[in-house]
Design goal:
- With about 100 residues, this protein is mainly alpha-helical.
- The protein is globular and about 40 Å long.
- It has seven helices and no strands.
- It has helices at about 10-15, 20-35, 40-50, 60-70, 75-80, 85, 95-100.
- The longest helix is centred in the N-terminal third of the chain and has 16 residues, at about 20-35.
């Protein structure tokens, strides 16, 4: 995980909490490996969750990851908007973060 794209709280979790941070990352990795979804779909789904929860701090890392896995900018934007019917207009705050992180390609 690229540290420059991590939120400060996440950096502290991994660097200052010893076994707790390691255990958390192990759980995340095992959950990802057990998923029936391919990695790109997992990243896009996770972006939907982050947007719905208004957790824009994780957007940069997960946009970069989705992009590396072949996601287009349109797919990233669509993933952010998945929660719009259920969550309402609050998901659009994540659009600017996702667009900025994805870049102009």
């Amino acid at each position: 995980m690229e540290k420059s794209k991590m939120g400060n709280g996440f950096k502290i979790l991994l660097s200052e909490t010893g076994e707790t941070g390691k255990a958390y990352m192990e759980m995340v990795m095992k959950g990802s490996q057990a998923s029936a979804l391919d990695r790109k779909t997992q990243e896009l789904a996770y972006l939907s969750v982050l947007a719905a929860l208004r957790m824009t701090g994780g957007i940069a890392y997960h946009v970069d990851s989705a992009k590396e896995l072949g996601a287009t900018k349109a797919e990233v934007m669509s993933a952010v908007l998945v929660g719009l019917p259920a969550m309402g207009i609050q998901v659009i705050d994540a659009l600017s973060a996702a667009a900025e992180c994805y870049g102009e390609s």
